[in-house]
Amino acid sequence: MRGRKVVVKSSHFQFVLLLFYLLLHTMAAGQDRWQKDAADQNFDYMFKILIIGNSSVGKTSFLFRYAEDAFTSAFVSTVGIDFKVKTVFRQDKRVKLQIWDTAGQERYRTITTAYYRGAMGFILMYDVTNEESFNSVRDWVTQIKTYSWDNAQVVLVGNKCDMEDERVVSTERGKQLSDTLGLEFFETSAKENLNVKIVFERLVDIICDKMSESLDSDSNLVSASKGTRLNEHTSSTNANCQC
Ligand SMILES: Nc1nc2c(ncn2[C@@H]2O[C@H](COP(=O)(O)OP(=O)(O)OP(=O)(O)O)[C@@H](O)[C@H]2O)c(=O)[nH]1
Ligand SMILES: [Mg+2]
Fold it and tell me: Among the record's GO biological process terms, what is one (predicted)?
């Protein structure tokens, strides 16, 4: 009888040990998963990017295509400002993009220009089927110069290039304007998913290059940033990629 009690106690002890082991194992797995999640939050750089341009040129559609790979033909004009976050890998770096989709309507201008501060890149968009939106490009450049900092990088985008029959702004005119303004130029279609990803990738590369240049010209920064400086070899995205 006494011997049987000992056997019961010993198996009970083994059971508790097993539970303890399982608990530890679960905690370790949880810790591991948490560390992986935390690592997912890691990034080398965070770039704030704004999409600007007249109302209805396709800013929201452009961002929707890039972030969700989807398109809707319904027009819901943006109220104020909205943003999405997307992480990309460029030049061996993990770059987190905070992309702000601004309202093109004049009445939101005070709100939207308040967000220009600290933006490292702008996608300045017009609609190739809308002359007025093209004529406004210079005004938008002035807005950037007024409310942003000098180092902000800008790419000019002529959207809706799938609507060839309704086109009123030729590719050549877009190119000429971009040359005059010193901006890189793309024609895109959010609807047909033409050049959307390329625009973002190119803008990130331009920002990275600019950062490297700034580090090069500031020896203090170079020594301080040893090991984190960007790779000088940029990927050669074709800048001349109209529809
Ligand atoms: N065919 C075609 N239509 C597009 C394209 N991009 C956007 N659209 C349409 O154009 C209209 C306006 O698009 P939005 O993305 O809402 O325009 P927006 O620039 O965000 O306008 P605001 O928010 O008012 O500044 C919508 O009906 C879209 O479906 C495109 O590449 N091709
Ligand atoms: Mg919008």
Answer: protein transport
